Amino acid sequence: MQAAHPHDVLPRPELERLQLERLRDTVRRVSERVPFYRERFLQAGITAEGIRSLDDLRRLPFTTKQDLRDHYPFGLFAVPMADVARIHASSGTTGKMTVVGYTLRDIDAWAEVCARSLMCAGVGRGDIVHNAYGYGLFTGGLGVHYGAERLGATVIPISGGNTKRQIMILQDFGGTVLTCTPSYALNMAEVIQELGVDPASLKLRVGVFGAEPWSEAMRKEIEKKLRIDALDIYGLSEVMGPGVAMECLAKNGPHVFEDHFLAEVIDPDTGEPLPPGTRGELVFTSLTKEAFPVVRYRTRDITALETAPCSCGRTLARMVRVTGRTDDMLIIRGVNVFPSQIESLLVGLPGVEPHYQLIVDRVGQMDTLEVHVEVTEGTFSDEVKKLEGLARRIEDDVKDYFGVTCKVRLVEPKTIERSEGKAKRVIDKRKL
Amino acid sequence: MKVEQISVFLENKSGRLSEVTRILGDGGINLRALTLADTTDFGILRLIVNDNRRAVELLKQNGFTVGTTEVVAVEIPDRPRGLADILDLLGADGINVEYMYAFTEPRAGNAVVIFRFDEAEKAIATLQKGRVSILPGEKVYAL
Question: How much is the pTM?
Answer without folding.
Answer: 0.70
